[in-house]
Design a protein that fits this description.
Layout (H helix, E strand, L loop, with lengths): L5 H9 L6 E5 L6 H12 L2 E6 H5 L11 H12 L9 E6 L5 H13 L3 E6 L2 H7 L8 E5 L5 H7 L4 H13 L5 H17 L3 H10 L2 H17 L1 H4 L3 H19 L7 H4 L11 H9 L3 E7 L10 E10 L2 H9 L4 H4 L8 H14 L5 E5 L3 E9 L4 E7 L9 H7 L9 E5 L5 E3 L2 E5 L7
Parallel strand pairs: 1-4, 1-5, 2-3, 3-4, 6-8, 10-11, 11-13
Antiparallel strand pairs: 6-7, 8-9, 9-10, 12-13
Length: 440
């Protein structure tokens, strides 16, 4: 079984007698149901799982449920023999976004407190916005993501001790020895191919067959693109959501990597505001990661973020390399001449940063250039710039150097990530191996 760091968070919640119902939010196919089921069946004598996507496509038992009493009655039809008490019974409300009225009911289920509850969902941001009575005081939402690189290492035989030892070296700014570096970098490159979707990772571990992995990834990517049809009634909006999603890989190959709004419908004069709902859908669904431009990096960064210069990344780097390179693993594993992995490296760093709780921003200034990422530093109350390099010229970064030397920005530290093993420091800039992004 794959180790997921969110497991301890869920376990603590289920054993805490919290006054809120926890909802695990995130994209489909990232393992939400599996990990909750695994924990629930282990911790509770009575485990009841209700999948509302299956219900809405099938018997529709919960479609008209509006009271706690009616809810219990429908549950009793499915698992009446398992309805014990709060201490020994867990009710898992899976894909709760399929029935928005049940989100409102969570408040009353918690007040009644007959059982222990946990829920999962996707598109919660969109669903909650459309829900007339949002029970925010009764719910806690925790975002889940595909496996990050640390979880991928553990899945591929690394011990927690080895990961912790690497973490200590990261904070001490100590390089790995050559053999360890090559091993970790090799697994990092494999992570670029496999990504963190559990089905793809399990397939890789089972038979190390890239064709099988790509088949899984292509199926999931098509599922993501089609999933809007389940929750969006406007057929024109469905087409625009699909178009924006399909454009993400090609945008990543452009020099600026930004969304070009007029290319979405091949119409001049289009702006972010024309597609705001479509972007919100993709981001809320967890299938796209948004990176917003900052021209004046004042802490906290969210105060000065702009929407007109937007980058979108796929939520999983394996999906991106599947689109770009198909079954050709040499493009990623070897230093192939003419292959620029810049978009791939930027994508995986975005995936790591957001999985670790960072909001994603980049620096864009017409005269001073562009820096790949900015994150908030709460210790120094300033921005930390991060530049990602896939080639050998990792010390060439004029925009980053200008950024760091700008006294108005109060920069205390900056990072450059590359394939170089040796950690080095030049004034405020620290050069790190790319895999150390796992510890940001």
């Amino acid at each position: 079984m794959l180790h997921r760091k969110i497991q301890s968070y869920i376990e603590n919640y289920l054993q805490s007698n919290s006054n809120k119902i926890l909802i695990i939010d995130g994209a489909r196919q990232i393992g939400k149901t599996f990990i909750i089921r695994h924990i629930g069946q282990r911790l509770f004598e009575n485990y009841i799982e209700l999948n509302f996507v299956e219900d809405i496509d099938g018997p529709k038992l919960f479609e008209q449920v509006r009271t706690v009493k009616d809810f219990y009655f429908q549950v009793s039809m499915i698992a009446g023999e398992k309805m014990g008490d709060k201490k020994n019974t867990l009710v898992f409300l899976d894909e709760i976004q399929a029935y928005p009225h049940l989100l409102t009911m969570l408040k009353f289920l918690k007040q009644d407190d007959r059982f222990t509850y946990i829920a999962s969902g996707s598109l919660l941001g969109v669903t909650l916005r459309k829900t007339t009575s949002i029970p925010m005081g009764s719910i806690e939402i925790k975002r889940m993501f595909p496996l990050d690189f640390e979880e991928f290492l553990l899945a591929n035989g690394f011990s927690q001790f080895a990961v912790d030892a690497m973490r200590e070296k990261f904070f001490a700014k100590e390089s790995l020895d050559a053999a360890a570096h090559e091993k970790v970098l090799d697994l990092f490159k494999k992570y670029l191919l496999i990504g963190g979707l559990p089905d793809a990772v399990n397939s890789f571990i089972a038979d190390t067959n890239i064709v099988n992995v790509r088949t899984i990834q292509n199926t999931i990517r098509a599922f993501y693109a089609d999933d809007a049809a389940k929750y969006e009634e406007d057929s024109n909006r469905k087409l625009k959501i699909r178009r924006i999603y399909d454009l993400i890989p090609s945008n990543m190959e452009n020099k600026k990597k930004r969304v070009v709004f007029q290319e979405i419908e091949n119409t001049r004069g289009k702006r972010f505001s024309d597609y705001q709902d479509e972007f919100e859908y993709l981001i809320s669904a967890g299938i796209a990661l948004d990176v917003n431009a900052i021209s004046n990096p004042v802490f906290p960064l969210s105060q000065s973020a702009g929407k007109n210069l937007l980058k979108l990344y796929l939520n999983d780097v394996g999906l991106l390399t599947g689109v770009l390179y198909g079954n050709n693993i040499r493009a990623v594993l070897d230093d192939e001449a003419g292959i620029n992995l810049g978009s791939v490296y930027e994508s995986v760093v975005a995936q790591e940063l957001i999985a670790h709780g960072h909001k994603l921003f980049y620096y864009d200034n017409r005269t001073k250039g562009e820096v790949d990422y900015l994150i908030d530093d709460y210790d120094s109350l300033s921005a930390v710039p991060i530049e990602v390099k896939s080639g050998k010229d990792y010390t060439i970064h004029s925009a980053l150097s200008t950024f760091v030397n700008n006294a108005d920005y109060h920069v205390k530290k900056a990072y450059v990530l590359s394939n170089e093993r040796q950690i080095s420091v030049n004034d405020k800039i620290t050069y790190l191996p790319i895999y150390y992004a796992m510890f940001f």
